[in-house]
Amino acid sequence: MKSALNGKTIAGLSIMGFFVLIAIVGSWIAPYDPSAMSGDIMSPPSGAHWFGTTQTGQDIFSQVLVGARGVLIVGLVAGAIATLLSVLIGVTAGFLGGVADEFLSALSNIFLVVPALPLIIIVTSFLPDAGDFLIAFVISATGWAWGARILRAQTLSLRQRDYVEAARATGERTWRLIVFEVMPNLTAIIASSFVGTVIFAVLSVITLSFIGVASVSNWNWGTILFWAQNAQALAQGAWWWFIPAGLCIALLGTALALINFGIDEYVNPRLRTSAGGSKVKMRVGFTPVLRQEGGRS
After folding, report:
1. How far apart are CA 89 and CA 106, in angstroms?
2. Fewest CB within 10 angstroms: 9, 183, 204, 291, which?
3. How many CA atoms within 13 Å lie on the side-chain side of 240?
4. What residues have CB less than 8 Å from 146, skipping those under 6 apart?
5. 206, 250 contact by CB (below 8 A)
6. 174: Cβ–Cβ under 8 A, 6 or more apart, which residues?
7. Angle at Cα 83 formed by Cα 80 and Cα 86, nearest 5°?
8. Which residues are CB-contacts of 123 (< 8 A; sequence separation ≥ 6)?
């Protein structure tokens, strides 16, 4: 079996690690205060300003460095809270069954139909000074239901397995059955759910900042795009104002997608490549077949 740390996963983790490092040290290594104005107005990239300046002389490179923290805080915090809720509710509902399953499933169904982005816009409109953690909490409160449904379905198939029944026959308590027998088999699915929620949270906070709903005084990549759009940077040919932030968003999304692809290959045996070179080839209209290199199928 091929290791879960394949090329996609390594590339994704490397890019993600770079942005996490920038989020930690960005405010320390930024050459200027991101809000400080200067006389270098709409200056293209140069030795003094690597990413150029805005119409008020603000250094865009400093804004990109400082803005990484807000994006990652919202993404990681929302992903952690939503994943925790989905595990608690989904696994509990699937393992216990009965009335608990019906109640928790109904709760999941309610949150499934709650429109996440409009709710976030309403909350942030009433609270214009909403910080990153409040936005992360609102995103996680509306983003856990899909993961809970998936975990419930998987738990329903695992709770009747022979090894779980054997552990139950020895008198193991319910919480030990869940933690030590069921949860290890859900690790990859939980990780994939976490990555998916982080992607959703990152795109949500950038969208909120870009449309001006979130506080534009807190720097993140969406805030940079908000001010660039208001100043009509594209019409003025100031490509350096929006391209760096856009590339950072694209690279972060690519990193998270690569990590998710790596997890999918680990979870789904049909996507794995064995050490001997066998691979499942998917073709439209045909059943996947296992082919061996150097031999017939």
Report:
1. 11
2. 291
3. 19
4. 86, 112, 193
5. no
6. 95, 96
7. 150
8. 130, 134, 138
- Tell me the Cα Rg of the chain: 23
Q: What's the sign of the alpha-carbon dihedral 128, 134, 135, 137?
A: negative
Q: How many Å apart are CA 40 and CA 273, to the nearest integer?
A: 54
Specify burial of residue 275 (Cβ count, 10 A radius: 0-12, 13-18, 19+): exposed
C-alpha span between 71 and 232 (Å, rounded): 23
The answer to whether 288 touches 278, Cβ cutoff 8 Å, is no
Question: Is there a contact between 241 and 231 (Cβ–Cβ < 8 Å)?
Answer: yes
Tokens 């691979």, located at residue: 279
> Span 50-64, mean pLDDT?
92
- Quick one: tokens of 292? 């061996």
Say how far apart CA 238 and CA 65 lie, in whole Å. Answer: 19
> How many CB atoms lie under 10 A from the CB of residue 108?
22
- Give Cα separations from 46 to 53, 59, 241 (angstroms): 10, 11, 13
Q: Structure pTM?
A: 0.81
Residue owning tokens 């350096």: 240
CA atoms of 33 and 62, how far apart (whole Å) = 7
**Token reading at 296:** 């017939």
Instruction: Dump pLDDT digits (tens) for 59-113.
Output: 999 999 999 998 999 999 999 999 999 999 999 988 888 888 889 888 888 888 8
